[in-house]
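assembly run, all chains below
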Amino acid sequence: MKNNFMNHLFKKLRHGTISVSLITVTCLFINKEAISQAEKDSAKLSATMTVSYKASNGSRSIKVNLKRKVEKKFIAVDNLKTPVSLYFKSVKEHNPADGTGLVGKLYLGKDGEGVFEIPDDINKLISGLHKYTFIAKFDADPIYEDAEEEISIADSKITLSYLGEDSIKTATATLYEWKDSAYVPVAGAELKLGIKRTFSIFPIGESGAVTDSSGKVSADLPLDMPGTFDRKITIVAKIDEHESFGNVEVSKEVPWSVLPEPIPEIGRALWATGDNAPYVLVFSSLSIIAVIWGTIFYLISLLIKIRKIGRDKSS
Amino acid sequence: MEEPKKITNEAEAIQMLRQYNDDLLPRKFGIVGNTWTALLIIIFLTGVYCYTNQLRYGLSITGMRDFVFWGIYISNFVFFVAISLVGSLVTAVLYLLNIPWRAPLSRISEVIAVAAVIFAGLIIIVDMGRPERIVNMFLHGRIQSPIVWDVMVVTTYMTLSILLLYFPLLPGIAFCRDNLKGIPKWQKWMYNILSLGWKYSPEQYHIVKKAITILSVMIIPVALCIHTVTSWLFASTYRPGWDSTNFGAYFVSGAFVVGAGGVIAGMAVLRKFYPSYKTYLTDLHFDRMGKLLVLLTVVYAYFSINEYLIPAYKMKGEEAEHLHELFTGYYAPLFWSVQFFGMVLPIIVLLFKKGRKPIPMFIMAVLVVVGAWFKRYLIVIPTMSYLPIQEIPEAWKHYAPTFQEWAITLGSLAGALLIITFFVRFFPIISVWEVAEERGVSHETIYKHLNEGNEK
Amino acid sequence: MKNETTAVDSVLMNKYEAMHDELLRPIQKTGLAGKIWIGFLFCVFFAGVFAFYTQETKSKYETISLNNYTMWGIYISNFVFFVALSLVGALMSAVLKLTNFEWYRPLSRIAEVIAVAAIMFAGVGIIVAMGHPERLYFLLTHGRLQSPIIWDIVVIITYFVATSLFLFIPLIPGISQLSNHLKDKPKWQMWMYKKLSLSWRGTPEQWKIVKRCITILAILIIPLGISIHTVTAWLFASTLRAEWNSTNFGAYFIAGAFLLGVAAVIVGTFFFRKYYRFEKYLTDSYFDKMGKMLVFLSGVYFYFNINEYLVPAFKMDSMHSQYLLDEFTGKDAILFWLVFLFGIFVPAILPLFKSMLKPWPLTVIAILVVIAAWFKRYIIVIPGLSHPYLPIQNVPHSWTHYVPSLIECMVVAGIFAAALLFITLFSKFFPIISVWEVAEGDGVSLEKINLLSKKA
Amino acid sequence: MSQKTEENNEKKTREDNSRRDFLKLGVFAAGLTVAGAGLQKAFSEEKETGEKVKVLTTEGKVVEVDTAHIKKAEVCCVSPKESREGIPNKKWVMVIDLSRCKHALKCQHSCQKYHHLSGMNVWLKVFKMQESENTAPYWMPKPCMHCDRPPCVKVCPVSATYKRSDGIVLVDNERCVGCRFCMAACPYSTRSFNWEEPELLSETTGETYSPERGFPQKRGTVEKCDFCPDLLRQGKLPHCVAACPNGVFYMGDMTEDTVTNGDETLRFSQLMKDKSGYRLNDILGTHPSVYYLPPVNRLFPFKEPVAENSDKEKKAE
Amino acid sequence: MEDEQKNRRNFLKFGFLAAGLTAAGVALNKVASGDEGAEEKVKVLTADGRLAEVAKSKVESSESLSAASKHVRQGIPGRKFIMVIDLTRCKNARKCLEGCQKMHNFLPPVEWLKVKEMQDSELSGKYWFPQLCYQCDNPPCCKVCPVGATFKRSDGIVGIDNERCIGCKFCMAACPYSSRSFNYGNPKQVEYSKNHPLKSCHTMDPNMVGTVSKCDFCPDFGSKGILPACVRSCPNGVIFYGDENEDVVSNGEQVLRLKDLLVNNGGYRQFEVFGTKPRVYYLPPVNRLFPFKPDPVEHNQEE
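ok done. output:
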C-alpha cells in the first residue's frame, strides 16, 4: 500500500519534470566539461576523510570530516561537489557499487563537515548487533580523488543516577560495555560529568576522572547553578572519542530548585516599541497635539466660514 | 527718520489706499526677474535630476559614509528650520508686542517661513535612505523618538505658517481678482478659488482678525518647539559637541538671527527691483530691523558663549578634541570666519546708524544668512568624527560633500527661493490693509475703499 | 488747544503736589507697626550675627552640618538666590525702560532698592560661607584670573556699584526736595540730605547729566546683570560634576532670576502700597501688568527647565540618573515637584485668570514664587552633591544627608533680615516712588518738575 | 534564464544544511506515511536531476530515490514578526577576554562571510586601544553591545530597530527608513549603513529576508551585529565565537550563568568576579550585554599589523 | 604601639626645625623664611632621637619653611612622582589609611586616603579600591582656585597652601574624584593640631581649620627618597610609588619597571574620560589574591 503510493508519486513527478531535468543534466555536463578541462592540467587532489561516531541518549550519528593538506597545514574542504554516502557494512545486501545498504547521502557543508543522523528505524534495526561498522565514501568527484573510510564501534552504555535529597547533590554515572551477551562495567575509562547548557556542557567533578572498578564516576553538582525556569536541570555523562566506543553521551533531567535570575521585562520604556511608550509621554504628547491641531481645525473651519459668508452675500 | 504719521482724515486715507493698491499689485517680471526665475528653475531642476540619481544609486552618490553619516542635507535641514522661524518672529512676536512698523514686513517673513519649512520637510526626505518608507512614520511611529516629534512639529508648523500667510492674504487675493486686468484665465481662476468668495464684509474681516490673533499666539510655542526638537535630534545623543542642554535655546536664538537676516535681504531686494516699494519699506524699517538684528545677534552670542566656553573651560576628554578641532584645528578657519562674519561683524556694522542703510544692511544680512548656513555645517559635521575610527579608508574620516550632494542642496535652496519668487509674482507681497491699519486708517474706511475697488 | 494742555498740566501738577506730600509721610514719622517690624528685623539680624560669631569661634563641626561631600550648603544656595534677586534692578529699570514699557516708572525705585539690598547681602552671604573670611583680601593679593570665583567677585562688585548708582542718581532730585521740605528731623539726617543732594538745583545742565547717566546706566546694567548671573551659574557649570555639567546653566539661571525678581517686586509693591497707603500711585493696574509678566517669565523659565531636565533625562546616563531619579521620584521628589508647582506652574497659570491679577491673590502667588525660588536654588546646589562619581563610604551617616544646622539657618535668616532692614530703612529715609520719573512719564516738562519741587 | 535558475538550484542544493537532507531522506527511507497533500506541495516545487540513489528501508529493502529529493526544505527563517519576540527564557550575554586577542581577525572574517557582508560594512571591528600614554595598547573586538537600555532603539522613529526579550537588539531592514538617527545615538558606533545597492553575494539572492539573519541587505538601511540569533535558536555559537582561534569570545545565557568559548565552559558570575569584568563606557547607562575582561597578562605581545586596510581603501576609492 | 608612634614622630621631625619655631606659628614662619641667616646653627632631631646641631642652610627645608615660598610651589627639581595601585592585592586592611593619618596628623572621619568597595556594573565582581588624590596633570581643582592656594608643581604633585586658602571649597566642587577634605574643625582635631609642634615645608601639616586639605603624595619623603606613608604601611604591597623619569616603582619589597608593570597588567586611570590625566594608575583586580569579603565594620561613624 505504502509503496504503491510512493511509486505513484514518483512517477507523477518524473513526468512533470523531464524537461527541467534535461536542462540540469546539460548544465551539469557543461560544468563537468569545464572541470575536466582543469583536470587535464592537474591531477585530482587528495583529501583525508575522518569519520567519528556519536551516540546521544540512544540515538546515533556519524560525523564525516574532510580535510586536505596545503603547505603542511590541514584545511577544511569546502568545494566537494559530490555527496558522501554512508553504508552500513553488516547489511547483507551491502554493495557500494549499486548503492545497496546505503544509509544516506549528504553534501558536506562549507566547513567540510557533515553529520549523518541514523534514522530511528535503522537505529532500532542495528541495535541488536552490538558491534557495527560504517563506511563513508564518495567517488567520481571532479576535484578530489575517491576516498573511503571505515569505522567500527563496540556497543557501550552509560547509566546516570542522581541523588538530590541532601544539601549535597550528587550525580553518578556508570559505563558498561557489551561483553559476552551482557553489559559489564568498564574500569579506567575517562567519563565526564557535566550540566547541560545552551551551547555546551559545564563540567562538574574533578577533571580527567576515570571510572573505578565498578565503572562508576561521581561528582557533586554546584548548588548555586541555576536550572531552568520550570525547576529542572539536565545532567550529562559522556565519554569522548573512546577508541572502541566512540562518543557516547547520556543525559538526564532532574528536579532543581535554583531558579535563574528573572529576565528583566522591557515594559513601558523609552527603548520599548512604539506601543509601549511611557504613559506620561503618550499622554502629554497626545494632549499637546490635540490642543494645537484642534485649534488648527478650528481655524480651517473659519476659512470655510469666510467662504460661506462670501457665498451668502453674492447670492 | 520718523515714524509715519497717523492718518485720521478719511479722504486722505482713501487717497492713500488707492495709492497703495496701485503700488502694491503684483505685476509681470522684467528681464531681470525672468532671468532670475529661469536661473532658479535650472538650479532646482539640476537638483531634482541629481536626486533621481540618488534614488537610483542610493546615498552612495553623497560624500557621507559611516561615522560621518549626516552631511549637508541635515545641516541644510537645520538651516531651513531655523530660517522658517522668522515667520513667527516678525509676524507673531512683533504683532503681539504691537511693534508699529512691522506690517509691511509680515508677509515677506511669512512667505520665507512657508518656503523654508516646506523645503525643510523635503530635504529631510532627501536625506532618508529609504524615502519611499516615509509612510512607516505613520504606520509604525514611535512616540519616544525625537524624529517623530520633529515630524509632528514640522507638519504642525507648516500648517500654521501657511494659515498665517493665507488669512491676511485673503483681502489681497480678492483685490487681485477684482483689479488685475489682462491676466491669463488660469490666474483669474486661481484668484477666484483662493479668495474664498471674499466680499470685504465686516464679518469676514472680523474672522480674519480673530484668526490672526489666535495664530500669532499659537505659532510662538510651536516655533519654539520645532527648533528645540530639531536641536534635540542632536542633544539627545551622547556625542561630544552635541551633548549640551543649551542646544534648544542656542538653536532658537540662532534661528531668529538668520530669520531676521533673511527678511532684511528680502526687503532690500524688493526695494531694489520695485522702486515703488520705497514708500513702504522705508529707511525706518531698515533701521529698526538693523537694531533688532543686533539685539538678536547679541542674544545669540550669549548662547554661543555658553555653548563653547563652558566645555572649553573643562576640556574634558573627547570634548577637548572636538573643541581643539574647532578652535585651532581642521575646522578653525571656517569656525572663526563664521563667528566673525556671521556674528561679530554684523553687530559692529549695524551698531552705527550708517550701517543701518539698505545697502550695508543687505550685505550684512547676506553675511548673516551665509554664515548661519555654515554654522549649521559646523554644528552637525565635525562632531561625528571623534570615536575611535579605525579599519576604514582614509577618505571616510573627512567628509566632503560631492558635486551631486551640493547640487541637491543648492536645488533645495533654489526651490525655496522659487516659491518666494512665484509668490511675489502672483500675490501682493505687502499687505495693503495691514499697512493701512497701521497708519491708523479705520476698518470702515478700509472696507469702503475695498468695496469701491470692487465696484470698479 | 493750548488752554487744554495747561488745564491738563494743572491737574497733573496738583496730583504731583499731593503725591509729594504723601510720599513724605512715611519719612516724617514711623507708626507702631513699623517700629515693631524694624525691631523684629534688628533682633533677627543680631541673632544672625551672633550665630556667625559662634560659627567662627567654635568648631565648625558643631555649628554647621556641611561635610566633605556636601561642602556647599544653604549659604551658597542662598547666595545664588540673592544674586538672582538682584537681577530685578536690571530687569525692571533697564529692560523695561529700554523697551519703552512706560509703566515701569513708579516701580523702578522699589526694584532698585531690592536689587541693591540683594547684591549687597549676596556678597555678605558668600563671605559667611568661606572657611577663612579674614582672608578675603587674598582675592586681591593672590587673585587668579582663571578662576570663575574671581570673575564672580569682579562682576558682583561692579554690579553693586552700578546698581547703587542707578538707585542714587534718580534719587538726587528727590533728596534735594527732602532737604528742602523735611521738618523736625535730627541734624545729622538733614546734613546727610544736604550732602547727598549734591547741591541739586534742577538746572538744565544738571538734568542733562542725570539723564545721560541714567541712559548709560540702563544700557550698562543689562550686560552686567546678565554676566553676574551667568558667572554665578558658571561657578557650577565649570565643574565636572554631572548634575551641574550643563551648558544651559547661564540662561536657566537668568530666566529664573527674572521670574523671582518680578515676584519680589510684586511683594514689595504690595507691602509699600498697603502700609504706606500708596494705593493711589501703585494702582491695581500695575499688578495686572506684573501678573502678565509673571506668566510670560514663567513660560520662559519653563522652557529652560525643560531643556535642563529633559535632555539628560532622555539619555539617563549613569552619571545623571542617580540624582535625576532622586529628584523625579526619589528622596528629593516632594521638594522638587513642589518647587515646580509653585515656582513655575502656579505663576504661569493662575494669573491667566483675571481675578488672580488683583493685588491680594497676586501677592500670595508672588510670595509662593519667592519661596519656591529659594528652594529651587537649594535643589540646584545641594542634592547633586551627595551623588559624586565615586561612592561615599565609611563616613558618618550625617555626611550622606545634609540638613542645615540651626546656626546655618540663623545666619541665613540674619542675612534676610539685614536685607529687609536695608529696604525698610531706605524707605524710611527716602521716597520709595520717584516722583519726577512718574511725572516725566506723564509728559510733564522738566521745568514744571523743578517748579513743583520748589513750590512744595 | 532557466539555465541560471538551475544553476542556482544546484548550488543551493549543495549549500544546504546536510543534516536536514538526511532527515528527509530518512523519512523517505523509512517509507513513512506522510500526508499526501503536504508532500505533494513540497515536491511540486522541486525538480529532479535524474540521478538516483538507493536507500535501505526498515524491512531491509532497497528503494530508489532521486537525488533532488535529498534536499532539505527552506532554511529555518523566522518571520519579521516572530523575530521581534525573542527566544523564550533566554538572556544572551557575551564576554570578550581582551588578554587573549591578538588581532587574528578570524572573528571578523567569519562574521563577514556568514552574514554575506559586502562592501565596507563591518559588523565586528577590532580596534587598537590605548587609554593613556603610559598604559598598554591592546586589541579590542567590538561587536554590537546589545544594550539593555539601547539608545539606538530609543530614537528609532518607526521601531525598525528593537529590543527583544532575550536581550538582542535587531534591525528590521524592511521597516528601516534610513534616517540614521540610531547611528548618531549609538555611543559605540557599531552600526553601518548601506550607502549603495549592496553587492549581494549570489547565494543570498532569492533568500527570504529575516531580521534574524540580516541578509539580503537592502540599500538605504542600517545594519549591525545581531548576535547570530538564527544560530542561537539552534543552540549553536555565533560565528565570531566559533571562529576565534584563541577563545577570546565567550557566549552564554545569563539565566544559565554559564558562558563558553567552544573550548571551555565557565560560570559567568565567577568569571566576572575573578577577572574583573567590565562593560564598555558603563557610565553612559546603556547597560550593555557584552562584558570585557581587562587585558591583563596578555597571551600575545602587542604587534601592529602590517599594511592595514590597503585593499579596503582601494576599494572605497 | 606607642613606641612605633614615637618613632614615626621622630622620623617626621627629622629635617625640621625643632625648637625655635615651634611656638612662633604662622606669622613667624613667614619671617623666618625671609631672612637668610646663613651660618646660624639650629638644632635638629635625628632619626634615632638624638639632637644634632647643623647650619641652618644645610637643612633643606629651612629655606622653605613657609609653604608659600616659591621653592615649594615649584616642586622638587627633576622629579615626576607617580603611583600605581594594584587592585588585585588589596584586602581592605586599611593600614595605608592609618599610616597616612598618623603621618599627617589628622583624625577620622577625615580621610585623605579612602578604601572603597567598588563594583563596575551589577554583575561585575566587587573589589577594594584605595583612592587618594590623583595629583592630576590637568587638575580641575587648580583651575578654579581663586587665589592660587592649590597649585600644580613640576614634580607632578598638586599642593595646597593652607595659609593662603580662603576656604571657598570651590576646588572640592571641581574635583570629580571627591578626594579633598575640608577642615571644619573637629574639636579634637583642633586640639591635636594645636599641640602638634611641626610644620612641614611641602605639606599642609598640621591641618588648619577652615582650609581644604588632601593627600599630598608625601613630598618631604619623596625628596629624600623615602616612600610615602601609605606605601610603607601597606602589608600587601598594594601601592607602588616611584619617579616616572626613572621608570621604576616600588612598593617597599618589589622594585619594578613602571612601563612593564602597566603594560603587562593592563594599567588604567580612573575616569580617563574627564581628561584630568591622573598620576595614579590602577591595575585591574583580575585574579585577586584575597577573596572579597564585605567589611563588617562601618568606619568613621563618629564625627
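Chain D has eleven helices and 13 strands.

Chain D touches chain C through eight residues (CB under 8 Å).

not gonna interpret more than that til we talk
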